[in-house]
Amino acid sequence: MQQQPILVLFLALAGITTIVFTYIFVSSKKAAQSEKGMSNPLKKRFWFSLILFVILSIFTTATLPDSPYYLFADETPAKVVHVAARQFTFFLSEKAIDPASPTGEDIELPADELVEFRVTSLDVNHGFAIYNNSNRLITQVQAMPGYVNRLRYKFKEPGQYDILCLEYCGMAHQAMRASFTVK
Ligand code: CUA
Question: Which residue from 1, 7, 119, 133 has the fewest beta carbons nearer than 10 Å?
Fold first, then answer.
């Protein structure tokens, strides 16, 4: 469902890029033939910058609200899961995790309901990446020491989901994984 608007956006950007490059190519050719094109380069640069600024502003304004940082911002999560990452494991709990002696538990989440992960790290930077049954990355956030990053998501399909670390964090980084169930 999401692919179509992305394709349209991509084609529009490709079109604009082509127009800009064609314009630059044509105007540079003219300048080489005569001095006319260079009569007021500062004015040209001003208009070029202004148009570029307007185009970039429009695309930023149009795409920023769809950024995953604002996903489900106006909804209350049905479930909150605390996540503490530490070399080389993830602790997941429905209760707050004590950094001094972190413990985790088996997590079961409801399908089609909003879940919020509150992700932090107890040592170095880690990645908190969620993969579905077919090993497809569906969402991710950084796990950073001293910060709690919120990740909101609605799982559509029941099943087992895997968590993998996406930030190189030490010798056993590739073995750093966990999982949870959606029912
Ligand atoms: Cu933790 Cu890589």
Answer: 1
